[in-house]
Specification:
2 strands; two-stranded parallel sheet; 3 helices; 111 residues
Length: 111
């Protein structure tokens, strides 16, 4: 088993196709996502443990998931670092939607 850590440091604070290529070239046939919500931009989710100013946008995260689902088998996933401290439900909804999208892409890639 190989682990590949995705850390959202990119040129000019943007994650692009080059970075996705660098990530997927090191993956095996079966992929297990371990997603720390700190990976995402504060504009996407704000009730998290330790935020990253250069985090991934929602669209960048979805692109990464889709590319991985097309090329590999998503076998499992977990999501950590949701820390809801406000009464605003947006962060909880976003984390839930991310989980839903992972499940959808994992099953979509099987068809």
């Amino acid at each position: 088993n190989r682990w590949h850590i995705i850390y959202p440091i990119a040129e000019n604070g943007h994650f692009n196709d080059k970075h996705i290529g660098q990530i997927i070239e090191n993956l095996g046939a079966n992929v297990y996502f371990s997603i720390d919500l700190d990976l995402l931009s504060l504009s996407v989710i704000f009730d998290i443990g330790t935020s990253e100013l250069s985090g991934l946008s929602w669209e960048e995260m979805m692109t990464l998931l889709k590319v991985v689902a097309i090329k590999f088998n998503i076998k499992g996933a977990y999501i950590v670092e949701l820390a809801p401290v406000t009464s605003n439900p947006i962060s909880v909804y976003t984390a839930g939607k991310l989980g839903y999208k992972i499940i959808w892409y994992a099953t979509w890639s099987d068809s």
